[in-house]
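Consortium newsletter contribution from the modelling node. Members have asked for a concrete example of what our holo predictions look like. Here is one, prepared for the protoporphyrin IX containing FE complex that several groups have been discussing at recent meetings.
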Amino acid sequence: MAEQSLYERLGGVYGIAGAVDVLVDRLFANAAVNANEAVHAHHGNPANAPGYKFLVTAWSIEAAGGPQCYFGEDMVRAHDELRIDQKGFDAVSMEIAATLSFLGVPDAEHREFMDIIESYRPQVVQAA
Ligand code: HEM
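And here is the predicted structure:
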């Protein structure tokens, strides 16, 4: 029997959308993430939460090997005006890991998803 994709092992669209729902609420409330003014201009406005949850869910579905459904910006374009530094990336990455732990995602899937996130660090971190 073929091994299930990470997308399937994370619970498909329901599992991923549920995790992003928790994650984005945490990111919008996280003081370290919002210390970046440009990030706060977006994450400080609760009206941005539903659309952002939609985009991050679709991105995560694709990144985990699920169906193609993401039509947002690529990771360079999405972050190129935010001047995100290593510390800013770490703050978000820690929230993603904390959310996966909080939701009881098993170790193998936790590691696999965090490896994907880490692989995008060079595209997201663009501060001089
Ligand atoms: C691998 C890690 C990351 C992923 C997968 C990710 C994913 C995304 C996605 C899918 C979007 C939507 C793009 C669009 O509007 O078309 C986005 C936008 C955004 N991301 Fe990230 N992101 C990551 C890291 C970060 C970090 C580290 C920060 C802040 C410290 C951040 C802050 C933002 C903000 C503020 C926006 C909205 C920009 C705007 O439309 O004004 N992201 N991100």
